[in-house]
Design goal:
three-stranded antiparallel sheet, single chain, six-stranded parallel sheet, Pantoate--beta-alanine Ligase, Chain: A,domain 2, 9 strands, alpha/beta, Rossmann fold, globular, 2 domains
Length: 275
């Protein structure tokens, strides 16, 4: 496994094909390991897997946790090596943004809803760094977790609209045994908050079970679970079509939630079949 920290080093690295990239902000956990394992499986023993580690300042608002976001490079590299990563790109802020960007990716109207409504400008920062990483790593496929479902949806739209020759591969959310979605921010939770956070998954699964009775029943079941834990402050709970447009008739849908547990903000989502 080779560690690169400059664009020049990355360009000089062997471009073995097929090439898969997994983009992260570090603080890797089993969810990231699942992405890397899937990447390794898809490119085969003769392909290459690239891991990027960069805490992207463009996607953090002024009151968010950029400064305290965990940086755990040594353990990240150990996980990467264990999952068969060939190349790690870990640039500094000055390396990736030598000047304050004057041109960024405009993510369209979906970026102003859900996460974008609570975090204005967030997805412009996400898509800008994803576009840069796709350009620099030149992969055949890029893997993203379904936990960040709105992010995944917008990346798919960007790649389609800009005719990028790369396959975007979704990977299902990895959960703890009790259902809590794995997140680098889970380490902020104390024992009480960790227990309270489980209400997000309970609400989602309650909604999924009510899918046979239609959208209103789904929302009512989820809200009933959330009301039992008033200390968890809900930013949004939404039921959308798989492309995050409005739900129209029966079929597949996606329920998304964001909430604050103590000072920690968590997101999750689940696929629902509406009858």
């Amino acid at each position: 496994m080779r560690l690169t920290q400059t664009k020049a080093e990355l360009r000089a690295a062997a471009a073995i094909r097929p090439r898969a990239v997994v983009m992260t902000m570090g603080a890797l956990h089993d969810g990231h390991a699942a992405l890397l394992a899937e990447a390794r499986e898809r490119v085969g023993p003769d392909g290459s897997v690239v891991l990027t580690i960069f805490v992207n300042p463009l996607q953090f608002g002024p009151a968010e946790d950029f400064d305290r976001y965990p940086r755990t490079l040594a353990s990240d590299l150990a996980i990467a090596k264990n999952e068969g990563v060939d190349l790690v790109f870990n640039p500094s802020r000055d390396e990736l943004y030598p000047n304050e960007p004057s041109i960024t990716v405009h993510p369209g109207p979906l970026a102003d809803e859900l996460e974008g409504m609570v975090r204005p400008g967030h997805f412009a920062g996400v898509l800008t760094v994803v576009a840069k990483m796709l350009h620099l790593t030149a992969p055949d496929l890029a893997l993203f977790g379904e936990k960040d479902y709105q992010q995944l949806t917008l990346i798919r739209e960007m790649v389609c609209d800009l005719d990028w020759d790369v396959d975007i591969v979704p990977v299902p959310t990895v959960r703890e045994a009790d259902g809590l979605a794995l997140s680098s921010r889970n380490r902020y939770l104390d024992e009480t908050e960790r227990d309270e956070a489980l209400v997000l998954y309970r609400a989602l699964t309650a909604g999924a079970k009510a899918g046979m009775n239609g959208p209103d029943a789904v929302m009512a079941a989820a809200h009933a679970e959330l009301e039992a834990v008033p200390s968890v402050k809900i930013d949004y709970l939404a039921l959308r079509a798989p492309d995050l447009g409005p739900v129209i008739g029966p079929g597949e849908a996606r329920m998304l939630i964001a909430a604050r547990v103590g000072t920690t903000r968590l997101i999750d989502n689940i696929s629902i079949t509406l009858r």
